[in-house]
Write a structure and sequence with these properties.
Blueprint lengths: L3 H5 L19 H8 L3 H12 L6 E11 L2 E11 L3 E11 L7 E11 L3 E12 L5 E22 L6 E16 L4 H18 L3
Antiparallel strand pairs: 1-2, 2-3, 3-4, 5-6, 6-7
């Protein structure tokens, strides 16, 4: 879907129910079909932005929440095509007018890599019983120069506004042995390193 090489290959889909580990799949479409409940919606949204450019790296996330209205699934993909970060996420929301009472809220956001001013990655490293290295978790933070929240700062007792403070827009990704397992930890580390190399200095 995303390049000539990809389209020329067979279209065999991974076996297994949605929610299976996506880490073994190098291609975004295979990983999405293994992991997402709404893979076609995700791939259509992302593919409409990526077009014929090659996907350089990606990470996927899926969270199942139990609410008063029932089970809600939140899904996210972060994709890099070498010059942009494409963020897709979806969430099931209530809609009394829709059949079944629920609809999928799907959205996509595109960030040129030039807008990312900070890439931070923290890795939790441990040892196994034989003394070998084990990556137990990873946290990646991407911050932009775009303001996400602006708040006034009071200067003196009369309450006059002396300045304004803004919190930049930031995106956080994490994987652990309990949430994702070693394969997804390794994939997120690779994704963080890719962005660290590509973001202009």
């Amino acid at each position: 879907m995303f390049s000539k090489a990809t389209r020329s290959r067979s279209t065999v889909r991974p076996a297994g129910p949605a929610g299976s580990d996506w880490a073994p799949y190098a291609r975004l479409d295979d990983a999405a079909h293994a992991y997402f409940l709404h893979a076609e919606v995700a791939l259509e949204a992302i593919g409409g932005v990526v077009g014929r450019r090659r996907v350089r790296g990606f990470t996927l996330e899926r969270v199942v929440d139990l609410t008063e209205a029932g089970t809600s699934v939140w899904q996210e993909a972060a994709v890099c095509d070498g010059r942009r970060l494409i963020l897709w996420h979806s969430e099931e929301v209530a809609d009394e007018d829709a059949p079944g009472g629920r609809v999928l809220d799907s959205s996509v956001q595109v960030l040129p890599l030039e807008t990312i001013g900070h890439v931070g990655m923290r890795t939790l490293v441990g040892r196994d019983e034989q003394g070998g290295r084990v990556d137990r978790g990873v946290y990646v933070v991407l911050a932009t120069a775009m303001p996400h929240e602006l708040s006034a700062v009071r200067g003196d007792a009369d309450g006059a506004i002396a300045s304004a403070r803004f919190r930049p827009e930031a995106f956080r990704f994490s994987k652990s042995l309990e949430d994702g397992g070693p394969g997804q930890i390794a994939r997120l580390i690779a994704f963080g390193r890719l962005l660290g190399r590509l973001v202009p200095g």
